[in-house]
Amino acid sequence: MLTKIVTVLLIFALFLSGCQSPAQPIDKQPTEEELQETPAENPGSDDTEKNTDWQAYQPNELGEVMILMYHEIGTKEGTWSRQVDNFRADLERLYQENYRPVNLNDYITGNINLPAGTTPFVLTFDDGSSGHLRFIEQDDGKYILDPDCAVAIILEMSKKYDDFTPAGTFFIYYPVPFRQSKWIAEKLAFLKKWGFEIGNHAYNHENLAKLSSAEVVEALAKNVRSTQEYLPGYQVTSLALPYGARAKDETALKSGEWEQTTYQNDAILLVGANPAPSPFAQNFDPFRLPRVRADGTELPRWLNYFQNHPEKRYISDGDSDYLTIPKDLEGKINKDKINGKKLRLY
Ligand SMILES: [Zn+2]
Fold first, then answer.
1. What pTM does this model have?
2. Residues whose Cβ atom is located within 5 A of ion ligand 1
3. Beta-ladder partners of 73
4. Which residue range is the domain that position 299 belongs to?
5. How many helices (H) and strands (E) does the chain have?
């Protein structure tokens, strides 16, 4: 595992130095070997963590989790856009207040392996805006990653802090996710390589509430087909509803088939407006996941809320073999989700 971390850090170092001037272009096509690389595991999954004095952290793995919803990342600040330095500051504040990113898929399956005392949060980005993932063309035709795009800032955090693993789900639509038609395949491969997720935001941001069931299936399958054309074999497993609008036909949101393309969504995300339940809680519903709007008002409001109500917050015990919760919450556990973990009440 140490070798893996060193390798990953070396790659980060090479990669990030390429973002500064003089610019050093990154390879256009990641090699097959590079694509096979996996990021370092979370420190919490290390065996040494098992000796942690978990009680000192007041773990509560039945606490709430913030799924943060970002739209534009760029120069403007507003309800649907976050200024780039404010986005940096968000990640820094989250880190300093012991939040650590996990991917949506790991959150919904309860695969949360974080250090004791930390709280998972999920990063989501809707619409595939240019500020999410931007390449800058160099004189020789090669490109570098814009250091002021969301992906670069997340990677910058993971370089700065060992226990900040790159994570985030990008809910894109077509025909041009991230608004640069030149590098669509390269960008999707880049996301996959660094452990990010690609989600469904309908083919062209259709309002699903206004479509027939057949049209909903087409809009969702076409998105998946496009992603798989650029990234063969990639499994899209989550959907963020455009405009937060829910199709009347729930089953069409979950799975479907259109012109030989099938899709299955294990998670459906709403627009707004509060933290989501622990994946181990009875009220956890992966098909109706609320999100916190990560703007200058809502995110600080919820961070302050959890400062004042630490008992509401998911706090990891640092040991993936155990599910640790305060005794008085025992009745709220969804026993089906424990998945072989040992239950520890205190
Ligand atoms: Zn949208």
1. 0.86
2. 126-127, 242
3. 82
4. 2-345
5. 9, 16
